[in-house]
Specification:
It contains no helices and 36 strands. The chain has 383 residues and is mostly beta strands. It folds into three domains: 156 residues, no CATH class; 164 residues, Trefoil (Acidic Fibroblast Growth Factor, subunit A) (Trefoil), CATH 2.80.10.50; 37 residues, no CATH class. It has a 17-stranded antiparallel sheet that branches. The protein is elongated and about 85 Å long.
């Protein structure tokens, strides 16, 4: 039994995959179709990593490489919240790529780093930065050459934006390992990673649950979490129904469905269609995100506070969170995953005096009532 040495683990917990509005990007095969205003991402089609928004490390100007979902050789699905979506400016022989941080740029000199500038800059004007670049297809037609021509004191030096061992940077011109992909449309999909668990919420549409997945709501039973309504593949999830979804790792596309069923009124899961900072509705309500403790891995899967008091949570688009109200204010930073009463749990009428009893939050219990508990290391349902 894992007791609550987990009291501080919410600080180190990491978010899981979830349902979201992913964006479909397609490989730019015809450069003559590029135009000002195109929204582009840079990715490595071999490693399936896209260029992120953030630096590779605290002291680095290079960009991190983020694992991405390639659904074919020319298409990938990306969540733009963490990937650098670049807006194209300039013209065909002098393009500019701009994201939230500024214009991608290289500096005059020997540094092989990728910087940003607040405004366009030309090294030919004796400025120390170059933001203009040329874009061409590589010889294999599967990659793009993104080249900054930097003027030094003696000559022009081509610096190429490319991928190298988990980061994106600029180096002396060489064979390209990156490609440009252009935004096409938003796609409703559920992404499930190696933990085989995700959360889902959609406020305006009902969707048929893809084949191979199981979804459920969460109820409370004497202070512990249990599974509520359960849905199987092809059953329709009603709008405003926040759920946990389980299934094999992969990307599952959603199709709209029709149902007369409303959301589960006993469901403790909540959700939002947009990124939103949410506060607890009362002093006794605490907000939890589905996550794992980074140091423990999948065995620590459960619900964690998102801040130091459990009073606030930042919820991502179409993701669900747990709102759990106790009779009195609680300091439970972690709550175990819910279980169905009828599956794999011993049922007993009354525990003995020698039994060591914990609730599913890891707290020792001396006077248990009806519900699910950990007794002598096993899950037990007390009638």
């Amino acid at each position: 039994m894992r007791t609550i040495t987990l009291s501080l683990l919410f600080i180190f917990s990491i978010s899981l995959a979830h349902a979201e509005e992913l964006v479909l990007y397609r490989f730019v095969s015809d450069l003559s179709t590029l135009k000002v205003g195109d929204q582009l991402v840079i990715a490595n089609p071999e490693t399936h990593e896209a260029m992120g928004k953030f630096p590779y490390s605290k002291r680095s100007h290079n960009r991190d490489a983020i694992p991405s979902h390639f659904i074919s050789e020319t298409e990938l699905l990306i969540n733009p919240e963490i990937i650098a979506e670049l807006v194209l400016e300039g013209e065909s022989d002098a393009w500019l790529l701009k994201d939230e941080e500024g214009y991608l740029t290289v500096k005059v000199g020997g540094k092989n780093e990728l910087f940003v500038a607040s405004s366009p800059s030309h090294s030919r004007r004796n400025e120390d930065k170059e933001t203009f670049l040329t874009i061409s297809l590589s010889s294999d037609s599967r990659h793009h050459n993104l080249v900054f021509n930097v003027k030094s004191s003696l000559s022009w030096i081509p610096k190429q934006l490319t991928y190298n061992a988990g980061l994106y940077s600029c180096y002396s011109k060489r064979d390209s390992e990156v490609a440009l992909y252009r935004r096409e449309r938003i796609v409703d999909a559920i992404v499930i990673d190696e933990l085989k668990t995700a959360t889902y919420y959609y406020g305006t549409k009902a969707f048929a649950l893809p084949e191979g997945l199981t979804a459920y709501t969460i109820h409370a039973n004497n202070g512990t979490l249990i599974k509520g309504r359960t849905y199987k593949g092809n059953q329709v999830l009603p709008a405003r129904q926040a759920v946990i979804i389980e299934g094999s790792q992969g990307v599952y596309f959603l199709k709209e469905g029709i149902t007369s069923e409303g959301p589960d009124p006993k469901n403790l899961l909540r959700g939002s269609d947009v990124r939103q900072s949410i506060e607890a509705a009362s002093p006794n309500e605490k907000l939890y995100k589905l996550s794992i403790a980074e140091s423990e891995g999948i065995s620590s899967l459960g619900f964690y506070w998102d801040d130091e008091n459990g009073e606030r949570i930042v919820n991502r688009p179409h993701k669900a969170y747990l709102a759990f109200t106790q009779p009195s204010a609680t300091t439970m930073h972690f709550i175990s995953m819910p279980v169905p009463i009828t599956m794999g749990i011993t049922t007993i009428q009354k525990p003995s005096k020698k039994d060591v009893i914990y609730n599913l939050s890891g707290e020792k219990v001396t006077h248990p009532v009806s519900g699910i508990y950990i007794i002598n290391g096993k899950k037990v349902y007390l009638k």
